Amino acid sequence: MQEKYERQMKKGVLDMLVLRLLEEERKYGYQLITELREKSDDIFSLKEGTLYPILYRLEDEGLVESKWSEAENKQLPRKYYLMTDKGRQALEEMYQSWQQMRGSYTRYAGCLYVCIRYLHCIFHGNLCPGRHGGACKWMVAIDSYVERTA
């Protein structure tokens, strides 16, 4: 079940990630797959059957364009993709939407964190650090998680 939701979340950001990789320079498909895998610590490990439909759709929307390279030495021609001005504008809009969603998530997670701390204190009858003579292991773990994800 978790894999299904993880796939859906990844799917929602792939256009933005592909455009981001094309922001600086033109790239060919396998190069995009490799960079995306490396830069995401294998979280986004795409197959050609996933990447190319994204590239074709972005091209149909006018966000990227493709050009074939000339064959050099023993190197076969490659199809390179580059971002258009329309793609740069779209990437900026996607990034702004992402920031808004991320901000909403952070606020929600912050509220959830406060609720957990409040319930924890009610459960223990008072603030945990004073009662146990040191920080409660559960609250230390929660505080540590919040710091890492903030």
Relevant terms:
150 residues; mainly alpha; elongated
Low-pLDDT segments: 129-134
Give me the secondary-structure category. mainly alpha
Question: Roughly how many Å is the radius of gyration?
Answer: 22 Å
Instruction: Note the overall shape.
Output: elongated
Element string (H = helix, E = strand):
HEHHEEHHH
Strand order of the largest sheet: 1-3-2
Helix content: 55-70%
Tell me the β content.
5-15%
Put the structure in a nutshell:
The protein is mainly α and 150 residues long.
Explain the overall architecture.
With 150 residues, the protein is mainly α. The chain is 69% helix and 8% strand. The protein is built from 6 helices and 3 strands. The protein has a 3-stranded antiparallel sheet. The longest helix has 40 residues. It is elongated, with a radius of gyration of 22 Å. About 4% of the residues have low confidence.
Topology:
Elements (H helix, E strand, L loop, with lengths): L1 H21 L4 E2 H11 L8 H13 L3 E5 L10 E5 L1 H40 L3 H5 L4 H13 L1
